Amino acid sequence: MKKAIVVGASSGIGKEIALSLLRDHYKIGITGRRINNLEEIKKIDPKNIIVSSFDCTKESNAKKLDELVKLMGGLDMLIISSGFGDVNKSLEFSIEDKTNQLNVVAFTETVGWGFNYFSKQNSGHIVAISSIAGIRGNGLAPSYNASKAYQINYLEGLRFKAYRLKKSIDITDVRPGYVDTEILKGNKDKIYWVQSLEKANKQIMKAIYKKKKSVYITKRYNIVAFILKFIPERILKKLF
Ligand SMILES: NC(=O)c1ccc[n+]([C@@H]2O[C@H](COP(=O)([O-])OP(=O)(O)OC[C@H]3O[C@@H](n4cnc5c(N)ncnc54)[C@H](OP(=O)(O)O)[C@@H]3O)[C@@H](O)[C@H]2O)c1
Questions:
Q1: pLDDT at 190 over 90
Q2: Where are the chain's structural domains?
Q3: Cα–Cα distance for residue pair 59/69, rounded to 1 Å
Q4: For a FRET experiment, which of 3, 53, 151, 191 has its CA 20 to 30 Å from that of 170?
Q5: Do 53 and 29 contact (CB within 8 A), yes or no?
């Protein structure tokens, strides 16, 4: 039986991925701060779901993952879906800090733990949910876009590292556009092109099983990504 850990599985994209893996006969380890949400998920298949509730910004991620992987008896796939972002027009440092502590600091520890674990066994698959936001800057939520740019760049670096070390580690960078989850904070109707979680998850799972290097979710966001890469700053600054 294959084994996967989903960091940030208590809601949204991470939860959907975890449930898909369970349906596909994976044993799963699920994490998040909201223990009640995780325990609800565990009820679906208590034998094949292991819960580890912790705050990625307050605990040692490496220690928590070591403990979890021991309980699971091994690991084939690590999915990092934990993430935070908020509009921060006044550049309140607490919001920028909270974003960076999770999306940069905890992300780095978690993805590094995964890389070293899979290096030792010379196999494994790391999947991280970054964002299309990582392509360009954003004046409304500067740390969110910058932290996602960091994730995209870091994952590419790890792919180079795996190649140079001749390690059989696959790394998939999932870059969603807007998906209908709690991270939108109830603003779904004010945002253009919000995709359903179900549709997004279908495409994410397809990319994971194909071991794609990177993928925009949903497919229509390929067009947005293309435009974002080439749109001049003088136009973009009027939008974000
Ligand atoms: N939805 C979108 O439009 C969209 C677009 C692009 C990228 N993304 C990315 O997709 C990923 C998943 O987000 P989502 O849309 O599924 O939103 P979500 O439902 O809010 O999920 C976020 C997950 O992160 C976990 N998390 C947040 N802070 C944490 C902390 N300090 N410690 C541990 N876990 C923490 C949450 O669990 P707890 O609250 O239980 O801790 C939850 O499971 C994020 O990285 C997000 O940036 C989302």
A1: no
A2: 3-239
A3: 16
A4: 53
A5: no
